Amino acid sequence: MAVFSAAYLAWALPAPVGIVLAVALPLLVLRLPVTGIVLVAVLAQEIKPNGRFGELTTLGHQLLISTGKIPAVLPLALTAALAAVARWWPAQRPQLRSPGGMLIGIAAGLVAVATGVGLLHGQSVFSAVNQNARPFVLLLLGLVIGMSLRWLPDDRKSLMPTVGAALTLLLVAAAVAIALGEIADERLSAYFVYYDSALPAIAAAVSLGMLGYAGWRWDWRHLTVAVAAPLLVVVSFRRSVWLAALVVVIVALVLSGARWRRTFQQLAFVGVVVAAVVFAAPGLAGDVGLRSAGSFELAGGDNAQTEPAPAPTDPGPAQTDPAPAPADPTDPGPASADPNAPSASPPPAASGSPATSEPAATGAPTGQRAAPQPTGQSEPPQPTGQVSSPGSAEAPGAAPRPAPGPASAEHQAASTSGHLDDLRIGWEQVRANPWTGIGPLAPQLPGVAADQAERIYVHNQLLQDWLRYGPLAPLLVVLFFVVAGLVALARLRDPDSDLVSRVSAAFCLIAPPCLMTAPFLSETSRWPLVTGIMAGILVGQAGLRRGVR
């Protein structure tokens, strides 16, 4: 499998850097399975550069958006899983009745449901697995990789330093991108850059995991990561993550107990530094305030009617290409919107149809979206407020940038209103088809935000899974996060839990609110892989503390 991964990477990246990655990445995941694949998951962004968003904020997109039928990260994750299992099997075997065994069974059930429903609706085996079940396969592989950490001492030592260094590197890349004008939407802010939504979720989890951590030290390593992680969350353009992180902060404070003094010391330090950066950058504080206000305000009256309909969650930003042709059912790429785009709706003159955007809790760009990519792969965002095609994107800074103002909050509110319409329409369809859904190949519903999606796409993980695969799929998703969430709460409450467990716990609590605003778990490759790894680490470390074998 390592040889296949190397060959596939070399084929998918026909450039000198591709040859280097084809050699280095399989060797890395063979030597350090967990650290290697987590490094890929943190650094690689699930969005293409397009002339506006350059390589600085789309680093490693080739691993998730491949020229082949599958993303390159899939064989790489399979290599990491096999390498990890080879280290402990058969000497150590997780108990099936443990939380880890339950999560593996649930993930396998999601794979079976997505595949089986696809076969019943006339898809080939390859299409049903690759188009429907592939994200759940990555979830399952992530679980195996994460649970293996307890038996990999080298990975346990290197994992958190590697993640901290990667987050710091990405913050530096974001700062350079801002200086070069490679921002997500000039009408909202000159400081928000386009990073895939999974990145700020990971950064928020790292930041929250450090709160109350018994091994916290006031040294440059801890302080650097403690500041870099929340700054990444601020500039990453993802309001759903902001809101989810706020909820988890409250939960963490409630569970801190006797560690409140240490927790508040950390919060005070990080808060002062982050506030100093935000207020020192001209206009950034106001932009953050407007972005936050847009999360709670809904456009009403004639404005809501005249604004172009907003678009799906967090996929690739707005484009004005013609609507794509109907998808071939045997093609592995889902004909749906991809939840990895910045949210912000351009002025009505920019276009007539919605594009993909950030989760419901965020604003969404408007304008038509480009032809859909394979599951979990995003089309590159276009400069917002311009009518352009991928081949004609202007260089950053070519067009004048209107200053953000009250109109920005109105655009975001209109976008949020469109996302809420998705929930209403999706629920109506669920009520009309409660036992079977409408099938994985059903065309997009009229009136929803992502009106150019070829397959059914709504801004909610549970509704989309229900509509595509019937009621069993959302039930399994809920069970997955109930099990992971209960273990996560126990780890946050335990004063002796290590940093890796605390970060994994925070991510498993942040993910469910984000999934209520976009179907990340079934529409991307990065989210299910990271979710599986975090949940696997969480239950694996919990088993280690109990002495479960």
From TrEMBL:
Indicate, by first and last residue, each region the UniProt record lists as having compositional bias (Polar residues). 374-387
Bias category Low complexity: which stretches? 333-343, 350-361, 388-398
> Where is the region Disordered?
299-421
Bias (Pro residues) occurs at: 323-332
Record keywords, A-Z = Membrane, Transmembrane, Transmembrane helix
Q: Membrane-spanning residues where? A: 70-89, 101-121, 133-152, 159-180, 192-213, 243-260, 267-285, 472-492, 499-521, 527-544
According to UniProt, the name of this protein is Uncharacterized protein
Native organism: Micromonospora radicis
Lineage here is:
Bacteria, Bacillati, Actinomycetota, Actinomycetes, Micromonosporales
